[in-house]
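OP here, attaching both records as promised.
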Amino acid sequence: MELIENVIIKDNDDKKSEIDWDKLEEINPDIIGWINIENTKINYPILKDNDNLKYLKHSFDGKYNSNGSIFTLNDNPFQDNITIIYGHNMKSGLMFSELANYMNKNFLNEHSNFEIYTKKQNYKATIFSCYSIGVNIEEKNIKSLSYEEEIEYYKKASKYYIENINEIKKIVKLSTCSYLNNHTTPTDQRYYIVAMLEKID
């Protein structure tokens, strides 16, 4: 991905990387973060969408692209208790298509953590829930839940029981289309990968 080569700055010993946020802002001020799941293709900027779902069909530079972008609709991404990040499940394997692999226990074990970077703060995300469900059912299930109840819901909904998760103060929830148990066109099913979000230096 050419963008990665242009905005990821590696130091001399190649052990630490920094993002050129000024260059990203010049490309598109809607770029508010970056998500990276190591050893996958998920290494993309995160766009802030203003409720018009522009980034379902536009790339990070604002140009029309059927791949869309990785984006959030949150008013205060990563400051809100729960931040939801969306991306397409593309047949090409791009965008959030690899989230489907979390239904495999070995993949989950090997990719249980990922990073989110922003201009002001970097975060480590530790996955504690992964499942597939209809989007309307999901919205109904969590509609009236408190934050604490929602956390418990995610734990119970997970396909696999995941241990070693302590107090969860903030959550990031990754969402993409699922074709498991689907009976509609377009699919109404979604993969949800839910992780505890912690600040890192």
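Record two, same layout:
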Amino acid sequence: MSSLKSISVFVPLFLMGANSFAQMPNDATTWKYEVKKKSATEYQLIFHLKLDKGWFIWALKPGGDGTLVAPAFTFDKNEKVKMKGAVIEKGKKTEKKLDGISGISAYYTGTVDYVQNITVSGKTKITGKHEYQVCNYRYAIPPIYKDFVFEIK
């Protein structure tokens, strides 16, 4: 009889938890990828990010308590491409203390661009993955991994 009692308590709790997960979006972002030619051999790879209203993404150096997942960009090896420096972010950064996080946190709302400068020696495709985490003031979505492709024509 006690196992029946356990089930009658567990099932409603499980359903309540499943219902709250069902309301969490899979992603609150729209990404667009652009190649901008700077000279005959120099280009910028631009990751344009638009966040849904009420959502934010951590800065590349998010601060906080060390638990924040900063965006990361991994480029597949390509003999025709040389990276010039690291990815930089461009946008209106917010830096402030957030409830539940020690220290000052840095993040973006609305839009942000991530730019990688490169030198290229001919036509090629540049591929890789980027990882990021978006949050609102109630919860954070687990890190998301997306493939990207840039084509140099």
